[in-house]
Amino acid sequence: MANSPSGDSMAERILRLISAFDAEHPAMPAATLARRAGLPLSTTHRLAGELVSLQVLQRGERGELRLGLRLWELANRSSAALDLRQIAMPFMEDIQAVIRQHTQLSVLQEDEVLFIERLSSRGSVSNFAKVAGRLPLQISSSGMVMMAYSPRHVQEAFLDRHRGDPAPFPRPEALRRQWAAIRREGSATLPGVVDPQTTGIAVPVFGPLGTAVAALGVVVPLGRENTAATVPALMTAARGISRGLGTTAAAAGPRHGLAEPAGSSTGA
Known about the structure:
Keywords: DNA-binding, Transcription, Transcription regulation. It holds the Pfam family IclR_C. InterPro entries: GAF-like_dom_sf, HTH_MetabolicPath_Reg, Tscrpt_reg_IclR_C, Tscrpt_reg_IclR_N, WH-like_DNA-bd_sf, WH_DNA-bd_sf. By secondary structure, the protein is α+β, with helices and mostly antiparallel strands. It folds into two domains: 10-74, Orthogonal Bundle (Arc Repressor Mutant, subunit A), CATH 1.10.10.10; 80-252, GAF domain (Beta-Lactamase, 2-Layer Sandwich). It has helices at residues 10-19, 30-37, 41-53, 69-75, 80-99, 141-148, 152-161, 172-185, 227-244, 249-252; strands at residues 27-28, 57-59, 65-67, 102-109, 112-120, 134-136, 188-191, 198-206, 212-221. Strands 6-5-4-9-8-7 form a six-stranded antiparallel sheet, with helices on both faces. The chain has a three-stranded antiparallel sheet with strand order 1-3-2. Helix 1 crosses helix 2 (30-37) and helix 2 (30-37) crosses helix 3 (41-53).
């Protein structure tokens, strides 16, 4: 039930407070939190006080607010992302032992890529992806490969939401061509998009319904991609993760264990 002048419910306002924290803003004073959450300062003080008492938020020595351990504890008790991470970790470690750059696991969340695990080696190239961080799906190899293997209605809904977005957002026909090419190849390779010095390579991880539920990817130096070796290794690992999720060979499809999503067409 809405119970504020703006029409926000209590749950919505609490979620806005919690969502205001990110990798660039792990701690902040109440005034900054109120501004980032779009809430009155008085409301922020009141809700933050209650959340601190519940250990969902905690205060630093100078009074700044940050996410509390209680929130982390609750999130990790029964999380689909945690289950996926546990299944994927042995396969990610195998990839990382060979790549020795960055190996990462991600899922789609709304119109963004949410990274749920990343393994890195000392001296690795720069990587904008952070655990629990997000990137727009259209600039991420992980995001593009998951969308390429999503059902057609999911793809079209994404395009509808961004119809008319100004450049550099790609035009719908360009994205459809990219998704079709990714399905033909079974992987997505995006050189120099997020960072001009790196290349992202990703393959889909399939769920029991034959659509991509996650992506397994690497970030390597531009010009040192070695896709002929990297992509098959990623595909093998992704098949193992898919099996761990209960996906059958039939659901995963014939091409390198990858499926053509229901309702899709390589001619898109």
